[in-house]
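Attaching the record inline, Q. Sequence:
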Amino acid sequence: MRASLGEGPFWDSSTENIHWIDLAEGRILRTDPLTAKTNVVSVGKQIGAVWPMESGDRVVAHETGIGVLHGEGPVVDIPPVLASDERCNDARPDACGRLWFGTTAKVPTPGRGCLYRLDTDWSLTRVLDGLGLPNGLGWSPDGYEFYLVDSLDRTIRAYSFDPEGGDLSKCRVLVRFSEEEGLPDGCAVDRAGHLWVAMWGGGTILELDADGKIVQRVNLPVMYPTSCAIGGQDGDTMYITSAQVTSNPSPHDLDGRLLSVEMSSPAGKIVTPRFGGRPRPVGDGIDRRRPKGSAPTR
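Structure, as predicted:
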C-alpha cells in the first residue's frame, strides 16, 4: 500500500494491526503486519488523525473539524469549529480518554495554529493558540508532562500537565532544530520517557532523551518520514509513515509506504489509548474561547 501523504500511525493492541492514514486522499488504512494486507476506508475529505473510541466507533479529526465514523461510514460531524482555510492535523487521546488535536491554516502560517481538547462529554476547549503547525503530541510515562511539536517553529515544547483536569502550564522549549535536521513532524514516547520524532526532509527518526538531547539517529531510505508509532507484541517494532513529494531530490520506491524498524529496547506491551466520548455527540457543547487560567499562548 502506498499513500500520497501517510500519517498518524498507531498500534491497535486488540487486533495487533497498525492503523494509519493517507491525509491528502482521505483514506483510513489498517495494515496486518503478518500478511502486509491493508484495509482501506475512504471518507471523502482530508484527514489529520483517526483514533478508536471506547464505544467501538472511531473519532476522526479532518479538514473541517471532528466527526465519528461507525464501521465504514459515513463520518457524522459535530458542528464545525474551523474557518474554511483551516484543517485539523495530528491528534491523540490522553489517559483519561480526552482527545487532544492541533489545527492549522491549510497553508501553514505562523500564529494560525491552535491546540484543542475534546472532553468525553463532547465539550471542546481551545487550550493553546498562536502556534504555527502543531503536529506530534504525547505524554511522559508518569503523565505529568505533555509534549507538542510545532513543525513550522522547528520546536518540541514541554508543558506541565494536570492529568485530572487536563490543564497545561509551565511551557519550556525542549529542543529547537536546525534547518539541516529537517522539520520535526509526528512523534512517539517510549516507556523510558524518550521521544522519537520523524524529521520531514531529514530522512531520519531521532531519539531524544527527556532533556531534548539526541540519543540516536535512525537513518531511513525515505527523505520525508511523517510520523512513528511503537507497536508489535512486545513493543519491539517502530512503524513509520512517509510521504511522496514531487520536489524530492532523492525519490525512493518506499516513499509513501509504511516502514518498520526493530527496536533495540522493546517498550513492552502497548495499550492503545481510546477516546471516551459517547457514541454520538449530543448538542453543540463547544466553548470556542480560551479558558481563564489556561496555559499561555505557545
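The mean pLDDT is 92. The chain has no helices and 24 strands.

More tomorrow.
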